[in-house]
Amino acid sequence: MTTDSRLILVGQVGGGFGVRGEVRVTAFTADPLALTAYGPLLRADGTVALTLTSTRPDKNGVVGRAKEIATKEQADTLRGLKLHVPRDRFPEPDEDEFYLADLLGVQVRDTAGAVMGTVKSVQNFGADDMLEIAPAAGGPTWYLPFTKEATPELHLAEGWLLAVPPTEVGEREPD
């Protein structure tokens, strides 16, 4: 049986809430209450961080109880902890939909079919999503806008995408 061990960032501990050991979690999911349904929430290294046993909505996510936390002080020590879920705990997306995490490791090919590199990460610096590309020939990574113009074709089932980098990438006007 093959399992997908990629971890998806789903939330971050905001700290304690109240005096009875509840924890506030900022959710990065469409439905914040789904955090309870995903099972144990993991640290980046894959170890269990929190097992939410009950939650209620909060302005930025949820407030709830976790099996690992008994006091407000314990919850406060976890402030800033990023919480992840293995990709295989998510439902399969509908046809023509995908999770951004599904792009990781995908080959990036140019219009001639040559492999330019692979997708190392998906970043968002405040505007649109950017694909961080690890070049096939080695060297520093570079960024490709994740737009219809720059990535007009996605062939995720075959493990590749077509890249048409903007003309200004790598070009610089002479001084």
From TrEMBL:
GO molecular function: ribosome binding
Subcellular location: Cytoplasm
Cellular component terms per the entry's GO annotation: cytoplasm; ribosome
Keyword annotations of the record: Chaperone, Cytoplasm, Ribosome biogenesis, rRNA processing
Main location: cytoplasm
Family annotation (InterPro entries): PRC_barrel-like_sf (IPR011033), PRC_RimM (IPR056792), RimM (IPR011961), RimM_N (IPR002676), RimM_N_sf (IPR036976), Transl_B-barrel_sf (IPR009000)
Pfam families linked to this entry: PRC_RimM (PF24986), RimM (PF01782)
Subunit structure: Binds ribosomal protein uS19.
Entries under NCBIfam families matching the protein: 16S_RimM (TIGR02273)
Domain topic, free-text comment: The PRC barrel domain binds ribosomal protein uS19.
UniProt similarity note: Belongs to the RimM family.
Name this protein carries in UniProt: Ribosome maturation factor RimM
